[in-house]
Write a structure and sequence with these properties.
The protein is α/β, with parallel strands linked by helices. Among the domains are: 179 residues, 3-Layer(aba) Sandwich (Rossmann fold), CATH 3.40.50; 126 residues, GMP Synthetase, Chain A, domain 3. The protein is built from 17 helices and 19 strands. Helix 13 crosses helix 14.
Length: 506
Amino acid sequence: MPIPLVNSIASWFLKKRIHQMELFMKYPGEVQDELFKHLISKAKNTEIGKKYNFSEIKNYQQFTERVPIQQYEDYEDCIERSRQGVNNIFWPTPIKWFAKSSGTTRAKSKFIPVSDDSLELCHYNAGKDLLCMYLNNNPQSKLFTGKSLRLGGSKEIYKTNGTSYGDLSAILIDNMPFWAEFSSTPSNEVSLMHDWEVKMKAIVKETIKENVTSLAGVPSWMLVLLNNILDHTEKENLFEVWPNLEVYFHGGVSFEPYAPQYQKILPKEDFRFYEIYNASEGFFACQDQNDVKDLLLMLDYGIFYEFIPMETYGTTEERALPLTEVETGKNYAVVITTNAGLWRYKIGDTVRFTSTNPYRIRVSGRTKHHINVFGEELIIENAEQALKKASLLSNCEIIDYTAAPIFMEGKEKGAHEWIIEFKTPPKNFETFKTALDEALQEVNSDYEAKRYNNMTLNMPVIHQAREKLFYDWLKKNDKLGGQHKIPRLSNSRNYMEELLKMNRLI
């Protein structure tokens, strides 16, 4: 079958999904309520279902009264039993897969259950929907005339007691139908390589021969790969390598710090960037409009949503709200109930609604990744906005960063300490520091109040990171590639002290 015909058929098939999306956008409350009742009914005979009497729960109010909000530590014992092959604990169908994620205070790693339902109805449907939205917005697309360069986890699949675990991306690749590999590059064999640096060379060698029309992966690691490809091919930009490249689907970390570098290596004005919001626990939202960064919350993937206002998070006043009660402009912690057996589970992310008709969001940070030592409530979204403005004013480019508090000692006031790796450093660091401080005050009134006349906080302290500092830190901690991320903000100085020490060693 000629490739243009394949492109037309695939485009037609995917666009049929638009009608279903329009239904959940028009009737969000009804769709979520129906989904909630389905999840409760399906799991009523599991151990969790019997413990909380799911068979007697008739509405959302009863659900909130009986089932507590939980986090990974509360689930850990159940998950470990499930990993040992015990079934029907929190979901009625056998859980064969567990997505390995970054750890908790008690353990090095988390193992998030991935059911057959969540694989098919959530993760794989989301991939189709993303293509559907893109093709609907770009009818002249020739996406299927070439291949998608996917950059997934660098960890292989491990088996134990009849169950398997690995990076979510590795699980998705391992379970894809055989024909899916024909439209993707690199091959499954290369994609699932364990050694990140060996894998990188193999990807470069394999993909430069292909007709790549799209990219998919985490911005930080994709940028490393793309720069390696340009170095290897001795080309100025990626269109000289892949002339039909038209879109980059990205997620996992904020795109803002990397945007200037991507624009340099992808200099066409009509090149598209599409953002997604997913995690080991599920696929939650994706960009549904060209050149608009708001993400459409997907309401029919087997995930029931609740949201905790961040002003009450972690206090005695904490209370979760259903989707229908959220407001625009506020920060909320995300709580999910899923078709993989997570019940009222805090995923650790915070979002801000930009619209409630339909429900669109922006990811604003992590519940644990913020700085609030002095009451300043600095979140990742604030940091990204301020760094972007300071970079523009100082004509510099940032690769990676992290920040931590300098605690008060005696009569000395506190401050924020930053370590930043630049691709192009500012010519004047004092100017950059002032610009960053002023930008933070503009986007965060609590920070501004603490900085007023140096009342609580002194000027920030900024260190220039040596080349590849953050890469070396990730390598040292066996976190190269895949879904691993630099911890941006922290209330402790653990990451900062380790990075500063490594920065002084060379």
